[in-house]
Amino acid sequence: MVIVMGQEATGDDLASIVAVVQAAGVEAFVSRGVRRTIVGLVGDVAQLDEASLRGMPGVRDVMRVSTPYKLVSRENHPERSTVHVGGVPIGPGTVTLIAGPCAVETPQQTLEAARMAMVAGATLLRGGAFKPRTSPYAFQGLGEQGLRILADVREETGLPIVTEVVDAQDVELVASYADMLQVGTRNAQNFALLQAVGAAGKPVMLKRGMNATIEEWLMAAEYVAQRGNLDIVLCERGVRTFETATRNTLDISAVPVAQRLSHLPVIVDPSHSGGRRDLVLPLTRAAIGVGADGVIIDVHPHPEQALCDGPQALVDGDLGELAQVMRDFPPLLGKSAAAAMVV
């Protein structure tokens, strides 16, 4: 069961709801989005009188949700949601381009990559300061030094930052710099981390686990939502299959399926799914064509020198074509692409 609070609801109204629910022996989890607040109920909800709850001040609706991912379900919220990151929308009305280096290496490299991203029409900057790698000997990121570089580049360009957090103990640190916290595929079912980012008060991008079903992906999002955060963006980044011709297999059908099941925005990562530069633009077209709310793409000024994922990073010569895709494709689906920011 979930209780949907109206926009006019006060803090006292919410506290009264929580008190009534807890008095009946039911747990109440308060989740806040930009435009609404939801109270998710866990326990023997048969002890509660729905009519009485509906009559309490500030309550807009009370509903029973059959899916296990109650807060992120379309049953709970039939209209699809828009998440704002530093003022940039990600949602059903737009196609948002997030671009930048897979890993922050130097101030110059990050600033050059950010300017490349802007040329292509990006309105959000991605960059990894913490890098969970398959090999312990691979580049693991610059840590807080990388976060400081990203913050400096944001100051220079105006692009809000999307960056990954890999450990629950680092969430507060990363959140102090980032505009959006990313949870990567390797941590998609790290439940302690999901709960920590849910409580951090920042929008969250949740990548699908490389071996996760769509339901498992949505249940991971529910962990974030249950800790008070409804500003979640789902990211399909390819799943692991028997196929070796690509780095991962992009499950393009996951976009409309997830959008049907959940009200959360859904974006696609064509860089990490294909794993090759020549596949990024075709997969971007496919992602927009199937209705994705955005794409997240690697760019690098010198990919041959990249410390992480150079073969999939777009270069200067690709930016014009990517910009054209962002101009031409969204209107075909009745959407618009965010314009590049002007410095």
UniProtKB/TrEMBL annotation:
Keyword vocabulary terms for this entry: Transferase
Sequence ranges assigned to domain DAHP synthase ferredoxin-like in this UniProt record: 1-66
Principal EC category: transferase
NCBIfam families on file: DAHP_synth_Bsub, PRK08673.1, PRK12595.1
GO molecular function, one term: 3-deoxy-7-phosphoheptulonate synthase activity
Protein name: 3-deoxy-7-phosphoheptulonate synthase
Keyword Iron-sulfur: no
Superkingdom of the source species: Bacteria
E.C. numbers: 2.5.1.54
Residue ranges of domain DAHP synthetase I/KDSA in the record: 87-328
InterPro entries on file: Class-I_DAHP_synthase (IPR052899), DAHP1/KDSA (IPR006218), DAHP_snth_FXD (IPR041071), DAHP_syn_2 (IPR006268)
Keyword set includes Transferase: yes
Name of the gene encoding the protein in the UniProt record: aroF
Lineage, top ranks: Bacteria, Bacillati, Actinomycetota, Actinomycetes, Streptosporangiales
Signal peptide: none
Pfam families membership: DAHP_snth_FXD, DAHP_synth_1
